[in-house]
Write a structure and sequence with these properties.
By secondary structure, this protein is α+β, with helices and mostly antiparallel strands. It has two domains: 4-197, no CATH class; 200-232, no CATH class. The chain has three helices and 14 strands. It has helices spanning 61-74, 122-129, 206-231; strands at 8-9, 17-20, 29-35, 37-45, 49-57, 81-84, 93-94, 101-107, 110-120, 135-142, 150-152, 155-157, 172-183, 193-196. A hairpin with an 8-residue loop joins strand 6 and strand 7. It starts with 7 loop residues before the first strand and ends with a helix. Mean pLDDT is 81; it is low at 12-19 and 195-213.
Length: 232
């Protein structure tokens, strides 16, 4: 049975970048919620435990997430939110009922689930525009068979062929009240980064020029790392 205790909190590899306009408090933004495809991740689970789970994110996911989100907002008076590093303290994003849409799309060559209509808080806009946080980490439910998961020293795993294992990957089924978190260590290796770039027409400063050069160097470093990894 699916319970709130079975929320997966993604917490560890850097992916590609997601260019976007600067976030502004109260103005809708759009970003990648899940990269598509088959992923085996290790994430937070049930208080301080960890879980290694395989999930297959396909074009059925947006509809299930949307249904779950609408049910959530219809059955609670409080508004779903995004935080930072899954701490459950500072709100970085609001997810207003009737405005948020989960859709299948592509960001910088990465297909997956895109969330549209989330609104940054003043704090969320500050930490993204200032590049304090550069990635998004979702919280979600799945149809994994948790009753057959094996627990060992704080770590849950799924035996072969059990739903949630690499041989029988789970499907994404819904959202948590905390939709996700800004972070610098997303569990999904292909997760595009949240990145605010200079708006068209804004003057370049010495600080912004050096920041841009540093970003471009980081992008080159990522490319070299990916090429090196393929050669192993």
């Amino acid at each position: 049975m699916m319970t709130q205790s079975n929320i997966i909190q993604c917490r560890a590899a850097v992916g590609t970048r997601l260019p976007s306009k600067p976030w502004r408090s109260g103005e809708p933004c759009s970003f990648c919620h899940f990269p598509g495809g088959l992923h085996t991740i290790t994430a937070g689970f049930r208080e301080n435990d960890r879980i290694t789970i395989a999930v297959d994110v396909d074009e059925t996911a947006p509809g299930l997430l949307q249904e779950s989100f609408e049910h959530l907002t219809a059955t609670t008076e409080q508004e779903p939110f995004g935080d930072e590093d899954h701490a459950g303290k500072k709100a970085t994003l609001r997810f207003p009922a009737g405005k948020v849409r989960f859709e299948w799309g592509e960001v910088h060559g990465v297909e997956g689930v895109i969330v549209n209509g989330a609104e940054p808080t003043s704090y969320g806009a500050e930490v993204v525009n200032g590049r304090t946080y550069r990635s998004w980490s979702p919280e979600f439910t799945t149809d994994a068979d948790y009753s057959k998961a094996v627990f060992n020293n704080g770590h849950w795993t799924f035996p072969d062929f059990v739903r949630g294992s690499a041989t029988n990957p789970a499907k994404i089924t819904g959202v948590s009240f905390c939709i996700g978190a800004l972070t610098n260590t997303p569990a999904f290796k292909a997760m595009p980064m949240v990145k605010a770039k200079q708006a068209d027409g804004e003057p370049m400063t010495t600080e912004s020029i050096f920041a841009r050069l540093a970003e471009e160097q980081a992008e080159l470093d990522e490319v070299f790392e990916q090429v090196f990894a393929r050669q192993q």
